[in-house]
Every structure is written in C-alpha cells, then in structure tokens.
C-alpha cells in the first residue's frame, strides 16, 4: 500500500541528457600567465568548442624553455612560447595554431559531435586576417551581440514554457533544486540577459546610430523607435518574474501568471528577432557607405567597450555562452584589438577565472 503513495516522476524531454554528454575526459591543464591572450583563446577552445573540463589553475611559465625549443615551433613569438597545454603526460608548447591543432588531435571525436551542431573544430575557430580586414569592427561586434541575445532569448522562452507546463512541480534533475530554487535561477538568468540587452541598446544609441545619422540624418530613426517599443515589455517581464517568486505555487492564479510570463517572453523574442534581422540586413550593411577611416573604426570599437562595461567584464562568460565557439573566438579577436592593454587584460581575465 505504501508503494502506491509514491508517485512515479515523469522525466521531461528537456532534462534527458544525451548519452554522449555523460562521457568523461581528462582535464586540460594550461601552463602560462593568467593574463595571456593566448591562454584565453586556448581555454575558450578547450571548454567551449570541445566541452572538455579545463583546470582552472594556471601553472607558472616554464623557465626551462630554450632558444632551440623556440626555434622548433613555427610562427611562435616570445609571448606565445610561455603557454603550454597538457593532457595527462602529453603536452605541447607553441603558437596559437599549434596549441589548437593539439586540442583537435587529442580529442578528434568531439569535433564531429559537438554539443552545438554548428560548433567547428578548434582550428576552424581561428579568424582569418582577410575577414578582419573586410568587415567593419563595430558591425561585426553588433551582429555577434545580436546572435548571443537571440540564443539567450530562445533559452529563456523554452525555460518559461517548461515552467508553465510543470506549474509548480520541481524538475526531475536534482541539480536544478527545488521549484523556488529554479525560479530564482530563472530570475537571475533573465536579469543577466536584461543587462546585456540594455547595454547593447545604449551602445547602439550612443555609438552606432550617431555614425549613421551623421551620414544621413534620421537613418536610425526606426531602430530607435523599436528600442522604445521593447523597453516596457522587457521591464514588464521582470515584474512578472518577481510575482512568480513571491506567489504561492498553490494559489489559483499561479499557473495563469506562469503562462503570462511565457507569452510575454515569446512576444519579446519575436520583436527582438525582427529588430535584429532588420538591423543586420538593412542598416548595418550601410556602414561601408559611411566610409569611416580605420582610425575611426578603432575609436568606435573602443567606445563600445566603454559603454558596455558589464557585458565585457562580469557578464562576459554569460554573453559568450550564447555564441557558437567560432564566433566566441572572433569576439576575443575584437577584445584583443583594445589599445588599452590593461583594459583588455581585465576583460580576458574573466574567461580565465
């Protein structure tokens, strides 16, 4: 009789982990300076591209590196030679290309079945010089920010729909915690996304749109109007989430509130997707016609970093989660162009922590 009192939990489709996801791999250890740009690239490649657990501790640079050893590594600079990647007893020291090739050779199976279908191998993530020279820096940054926010919005929409379906029942996976713990995690994730979206809008209004309006007054008017349209919805969703946090899950209107949350997020997603597509297809391609000098492009990029300080510091890991690995590597290329080296190192340090 007691057995009949125990309810059989139904496993949600979203919570079923693929068989490949349970595979264990040996930790990747990096040796070198925590401030090294190269270490940031390699760590991102090992963790994001191939989902390999990486040792968070950075060993000091090897002091026994000889000139002869350096000469055996093609295209290797003095700074790059201080970075070593090691998996168990195997390791390699050298340039970025050499280190990324080692990752691909050491974990060949992961490149063909990455956690994201579009994830390339580590070597494929390296940005070509030709691409860097043919696309506006600020345009490339803006498009990748659109891509990250699109991914995070889709994630929040699916999560909200799952919460609405369960209506107060906790997730099967114990790592998610209780229902209220999950709701708090949901709230935190949305607040992080909201910060990124707000800073992105500020960047466009303070950096991007003035560039277009200086060439053709009113060119960005429609985009500004869409920013004003979406802001009340974004803030409204935050208030609904606050209600979900304080309401009793057994109250009559609890499920209705969850469905309202899901519906509002879906509305926001649709409007943002339309807004991003409009900018990507209609507005951003006009940047080439503005004919900014290389120096003006660099100044605009620096201004973006100044405006979006939280996105490029405490929220950088969160932001990069929304990018395919090859785009995340490209975004690091943009950060590495920051002429204030201390600022650049502070941004990259977030990845290495």
TrEMBL record:
Ranges for domain Hemerythrin-like: 138-286
Annotated CDD domains: Hr-like (cd12108)
Organism: Arachis hypogaea
Lineage of origin: Eukaryota, Viridiplantae, Streptophyta, Embryophyta, Tracheophyta
Protein name: Hemerythrin-like domain-containing protein
């Amino acid at each position: 009789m007691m057995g009949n009192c125990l309810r059989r939990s139904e496993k949600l489709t979203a919570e079923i982990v693929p068989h490949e996801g349970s595979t264990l791999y040996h930790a990747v250890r990096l040796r070198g300076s925590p401030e090294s740009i190269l270490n940031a690239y390699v760590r991102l490649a090992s963790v994001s591209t191939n989902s390999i657990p990486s040792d968070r501790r950075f060993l000091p640079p090897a002091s026994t590196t000889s000139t002869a050893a350096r000469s055996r590594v093609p295209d290797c600079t003095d700074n790059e030679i201080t970075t070593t990647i090691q998996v168990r007893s195997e390791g390699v020291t050298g340039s970025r290309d050499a280190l990324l090739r080692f990752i691909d050779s050491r974990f060949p199976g992961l490149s063909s079945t990455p956690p994201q279908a579009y994830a390339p191998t580590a070597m494929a993530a390296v940005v070509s010089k030709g691409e860097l020279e043919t696309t506006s820096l600020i345009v490339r940054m803006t498009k990748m920010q659109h891509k990250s926010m699109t991914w995070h919005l889709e994630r929040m929409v699916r999560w909200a729909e799952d919460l609405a379906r369960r209506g107060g029942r906790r997730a099967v996976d114990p790592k998610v915690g209780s229902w209220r713990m999950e709701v708090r995690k949901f709230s935190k994730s949305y607040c992080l996304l909201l910060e990124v979206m707000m800073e992105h809008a500020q960047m466009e209004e303070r950096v991007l749109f003035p560039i277009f309006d200086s060439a053709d007054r009113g060119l960005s008017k429609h985009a500004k109007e869409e920013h004003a349209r979406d802001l009340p919805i974004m803030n409204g969703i935050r208030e609904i989430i606050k209600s979900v946090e304080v309401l009793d899950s057994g109250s009559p209107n609890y499920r209705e509130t969850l469905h309202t949350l899901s519906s509002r997020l879906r509305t926001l997603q649709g409007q943002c997707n339309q807004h991003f597509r409009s900018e990507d297809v209609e507005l951003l391609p006009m940047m080439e016609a503005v004919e900014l000098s290389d120096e003006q492009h660099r100044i605009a990029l620096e201004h973006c970093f100044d405006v979006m300080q939280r996105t490029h510091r405490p929220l950088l890991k969160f932001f990069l989660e929304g990018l395919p690995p090859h785009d995340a590597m490209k975004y690091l290329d943009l950060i590495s162009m920051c002429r204030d080296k201390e600022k650049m190192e502070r941004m990259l340090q977030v990845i290495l922590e």
